[in-house]
TrEMBL record:
Source taxon at top rank: Bacteria
Organism: Rhizobium miluonense
Protein name: Adenylate kinase family enzyme
Transmembrane annotation, as ranges: none
Keywords attached to this entry: Kinase, Transferase
UniProt xrefs under InterPro entries: Cytidylate_Kinase-2, P-loop_NTPase
GO molecular function: kinase activity
Length: 197
């Protein structure tokens, strides 16, 4: 079983046309999901299409050069400052900051691709950026892949889904949530967003 069965979210959006309308009207969007699932690419495309500031938790909050993690208090302070912006799309899961981010969010996009697709996404990204730093990563964080990271991806759904659901219920029960579970859904959404409103 690839994805954990979950209760229906109170504000879940199931229709991509409706989701596209929400995105067009949103000023602040949170995009979350497993590494390798395509959330950064999706976020950057939406940011470019609608003139939203693109914020990456990996690049702007979590990592310092050389894959050194920032202190948790400093991470939180950065997020508190970033979410005060008027128009942004923030790429990153990090349920421990839902209490800060969700109250400022108009829409959540949850990228829930199958884990083998996420593994493939991470490996192909590594091959593409080998020896370099990709744009959505902090400077000095050369693209890498190891067994620990692959294990993180493989177990992401079972470890993070309960925390995500609890965080959404507690800090954003009325915020619309769109789940994208395939590349086809993602392409269809981007096609809809590319059309004139």
């Amino acid at each position: 079983m690839d994805q954990i069965a979950m209760p229906t979210l109170r504000s879940e959006i199931r229709d991509l046309d409706v989701a596209a309308e929400h995105i067009r009207r949103a000023n602040r969007i949170m995009v979350m999901g497993c590494s390798g699932g395509g959330k950064s690419t999706l976020s950057q495309k939406i940011a470019a299409r609608f003139g939203l500031a693109y914020l990456s938790i990996d690049r702007d909050v979590l990592w310092l050069p050389g894959w050194v993690q920032r202190d948790r208090d400093e991470q939180r302070a950065i997020i508190v400052a970033k979410v005060q912006g008027e128009r942004w799309i923030m790429d990153g899961t990090n349920p421990s900051t839902f209490d800060v981010r969700l109250p400022r969010t108009d829409l959540v996009i949850w990228v829930r691709m199958p884990r083998l697709l996420c593994i493939w996404g991470a490996v192909s990204r590594w091959l593409k950026w080998m020896g370099r730093t990709r744009p959505e990563m902090a400077p000095g964080c050369i693209e890498k892949i190891d067994w620990e990271f692959l294990r993180f991806i493989w177990t992401f759904e079972e470890k993070f889904t309960p925390r995500v659901l609890a965080g959404l219920a507690e800090h954003g029960p009325n915020i619309p949530v769109l789940q994208l579970k395939s590349r086809g859904e993602m392409r269809q959404l981007l096609d809809l967003l590319g059309r004139p409103a």
